Amino acid sequence: MFSRTTLLASASAAIALFGSASVAQAQAFYLQEQSTRAAGRAFSGEAADTGAASLWWNPAAIGGATEGDAVLSATLILPKGDVRNNGTVIRRRPDQPFTPVGGEQVSSNPINNGVLPAGAIAVPLNDRVAVGLAVTSPFSFTTDYNDDSWARYSADRTKLLTIDIQPSIAVAVTDWLRVGGGANIEYTDASLSNALPNLLPGQADGRQELKGNGWDFGWTAGFQMHNEVATIGFSYKSAIKHTLTGELEVSGLQGPLAGQNRTINDAEASFYTPAQAIVAGRFNVSDKLTLNAQAINYQWSKFDAIRLGAPLNTAIPENYQDSWSLAGGFDYAVSPSFTFRAGVQHATTPTRDGERDARVPDADRWNYGVGASYQVNQRFGLDLSANYVDFEDATIDRSTIGNGGATTITTNGTLENARAIVLSAGGHIRF
Questions:
Q1: Considering just the CA atoms, what is the radius of gyration of the chain in Å?
Q2: 156 half-sphere exposure, CB direction, 13 A CA radius
Q3: pTM passes above 0.85
Q4: Which of the listed CATH numbers 1.10.20.10, 2.40.160.60, 3.40.50.2300, 2.40.100.10 matches domain 2-430?
Q5: pLDDT tens digit string along 266-291?
Q6: GO CC terms on record (predicted)?
Q7: Is cis: bond before 311, omega within 30 of 0?
């Protein structure tokens, strides 16, 4: 019974800990820094813009391109925040009273600084048809709680790497309509560990570590309608079912639990990342000023459970809710070679009060961005951006049961003072 519960908890952590990246910048466990230009205006017009820099958001962006276009960026993410214990208690066995969980009571900055790369290229085949390729890393991060953190039983150390490869094709159907579509081929590699409580308070914690990887597939499609004054874009990125297969190792358990120290091969967990419905507009107010707006519906309710394969054949409820981001911004051409941009974005969290734990310290947030592009010559240009992300305080209040139902942890904590500085630099070239 305990080995089954252990694997349930481990698989839950493997997926839910992905959400820790939210403190860095994104919504739940989605990172949106796929373009320096986009970050500069707080992601406010991407599905309606053109060129390789918008390929991730809308493959129609390259329809009708007349020359080759490539972009490359690197984003430095500097997150800060405190995960604070406000009275979490543990009952290790039903015949024992609840006692404080102990350990470090404030875990500061559990999300590591990181660098997120992204790149895209578009090549016209004729005056209407173009093909493109975007390579991004939308779910990559490392989180590290101290060994004695109060949150150690649900979150310890996690490293996640994803590589998303999106080949696309787009067509300028008419002088005012562009359409496009692409596949999302995604590789995921994850490793995580967390502590396991033994049955007696004086005993050292056990430990479990889960490693897994897998290839998964989705798709993206969109269109853009445009004239000399405005461009309206719509795109849809499908949900992706992820399946991770790997190894679970359990160690350090004592007494009646010692027999459960083992290595389980071919552990498997499946889950969905959300579909996204994106609508955006760009409006040419003058020959220098363009206003941008974008709304995204993240269909997180698809992430309702983590489903575990044989021999467990069960599911762990997650109960995420659909969420939104709304953004507005502008681009201003100061000169033919220099463009300044800025924007603001508000996004809601898909996590629910009463079901949020330290593995997913997510919250509603505001994102403020500024950026600029400098055209060095007719072919090559530089892009820079900076963002400040301010997160609301949020409760951490999801209780857990482990050790075959013997141990109960009643969680009472908060995410406090969470913010992030995000710096991005990139270049674009036409050929």
A1: 23
A2: 19
A3: yes
A4: 2.40.160.60
A5: 888 888 889 999 999 999 999 999 99
A6: cell outer membrane
A7: yes
